[in-house]
Amino acid sequence: MNQKSTTLKTITGKRWVNPYLAKINSLPDILLSSDDNFNLSTAQHSLLSSKLRDYPSIFCELCSGSGGHLIKQAKKSPQALFVGFELRYKRSFRTAEKAKKEGLRNLIVLRCDARTIDKYIPAETLSGVYLNFPDPWDRLRWEKHRLLSREFLLKLYELLKPGGFFSYKTDHRERFKEALGWIESLEGYRLEFKSFDLHADTDFQDNVTTEFEELFRSKKVPVNYLYAVKI
User: How far is Cα 148 from Cα 150, in angstroms, rounded to an integer?
Assistant: First the structure.
C-alpha cells in the first residue's frame, strides 16, 4: 500500500478508511509509525535512540511482514535488539501486537519505507540485516519499486559494523542471481554461503524460517539464500 493510500473509495462510492490507522499509535513502546515524509516525532526518535544505545548487538529485518521471523529471532537472542522495517499498517501492527503478547522488550517495529533505513540507523551500528522474500516486482516497468539494488547494498554496508552480515532469502531465482552478482562484485562484502535450494542443502543447519518459507517448503518450491559479511 502506498504511504498515503489510507482511504479509498469502494464500489458503492463510500470512503473506506484503513482500520489500522486508529491502532497504529496504540503500542508506542514497540511500534513507531513515521509521517508521510518518513520522519519520526521527537519522542519516537528519542525512544529509538535509547533502544539502540541499550543493546550491544542490533539486527534489522527489512520488509518484516507480520513478524514471524523477527519474533523468533528476538526470542532466540534476548540480549540483542531486533528492529523490523515494514511499510504496511496491518502487518506492522500485528508484529507489535505479537511482540507485546510475548513480552518481548528487545523488539521494535518501524512503520516506514525500508529504503529510508539510514534516516533511523547510524553508521556502523548493525550486527546484521535480514531481507526475506521481498516483493520481486518482476516486470521491467516495476523495477523502480524493487528494494534490493547495488546502491542499496552500499547503503547497508555503511550501516553494518565490520563483520556484520547481510542475509537474503527469496524464491525468485532471477532476483537472487542479480543480488549474488552485486555481492560478488562489491569489494566490501565477502560471500560466506549461497544456496539455490536451502532446504535441500545439508551444509546449512542453523535456519530460522519465515511464514513464506514454510509455505514454499510445503509446496517444494526451492528457496535461494545468501549470507555475506562486511570486511
Answer: 7
